[in-house]
Amino acid sequence: MKCSVFLVAMALYALNLASAQSTIKLRRLGGHEDLNHTNYIDHEAMRVAAKYAKNAQMYFQNTGKHHSVVNGTTLSRRADSGDIKLRMLDAATWVGDIEVGTPGQKQTVKFDSGSPNIVIGRDSYKPDQSITARGLRKDFEVAYVGAKVHGSVYTDEVNVAGVKAKHVAIGSSKSNFLGANEDQDLVGLFGLSYPNIGSFDVPDENTYVVASKKQKIFYDDIFQFYIRRNGDSFMNVGKIDKDGVDGDITWVDVDKSEGYWKADIEINGHKTSGTVDSGSTFLWGNNDEVKKILDEIDGVEVKKSDSGDWRGWYKCDNPPEVKLKVADMEVTMSKDAIIAGVQDDQCQLCIVGMDGINSWIYGVNFFQMFTVILDFDKERMGLGKQKE
Predict the structure, then answer these.
(1) Over the stretch 71-124, which tens digit does the pLDDT of each residue have?
(2) In whole angstroms, what is the distance from residue 279 CA to residue 25 CA?
(3) Pairing label, strands 163-173, 118-120
(4) What is the pLDDT of residue 48?
(5) Are residues 154 and 83 in the same domain?
(6) Where would I find the beta strands (DSSP E) of 76-133?
(7) More confident residue, 169 or 41
(8) Are 261 and 114 members of one domain?
């Protein structure tokens, strides 16, 4: 009898794990018209610089080591220059919904594979209305577009695709730094990197990715991005969907010691290495490397920006050819995926230079060509060519 009860219990447990597989629909904020800003690329450069400079600072604070991806001093100077209103201009931002707290409070967030923390704006997350919220009496600071975002850290339940993780650290910002209560509904960031670049002074098991793994809430601790500018976009949780993949998935072992998901990518035959980051736009590289690549692309006029970065411009009605290669998979970027900005009849290419970074940052323009799979169980990343 006891054996039968045990078997039934184990079967129910396995069934519960197997059911912990779901899909979050992602929707895009904005459109091509949002790219028609003369300062759009500068805005994005400042945002990326602020993010990676702060990550490097926290990595040093958490490990005592300097991060290999960036020169933190150079990026910090870049991030602190200029004054741009803190609102999202992204035409390349895909967001999805989660719930935090008990009862659940709906939050629209950007899923960010380039940072580990969950940060939500003041007017959206209300810990005093959650019976599972616990204040840690800790403050946090993150960098966002040349400004420091401050707040308090709580732990609470986080519901992703119908599956709850307990005791997850959430940064409740003192400001609505992502444009809440404006014309867009994005209110927070949901980190999916490893915790050693985190800005919260909490144990690793309080970050979502570690908490979900330790609590075994998913059958497989996997997150799969499938992002298309034109068409359905989604993030699979706990499962892999190969229906939209053209051919095989290439798996890359990940060294989690520096926090990021990194891969080697060829851009028009040039070997590059860097971070696969769903929380950033474009393809960012060191200025010298970017200029070499841009100089060789037919139909692209290479110019130095006011900030000293190399950028490429082309006639919008005649997009250039940009090829990305991962292992044996090669794709030609679509005309929608290569665009970074528009000014009159000129378009700016999504390959952008930046001083202060030692390796590349492959943002959502890369995600529009490849499905990206973050496998925390086996510490590897899967990349598959999207079907056209």
Answers:
(1) 644 444 443 433 222 233 345 678 889 999 999 999 989 899 999 999 998 778
(2) 17
(3) parallel
(4) 78
(5) yes
(6) 93-100, 105-112, 118-120
(7) 169
(8) no
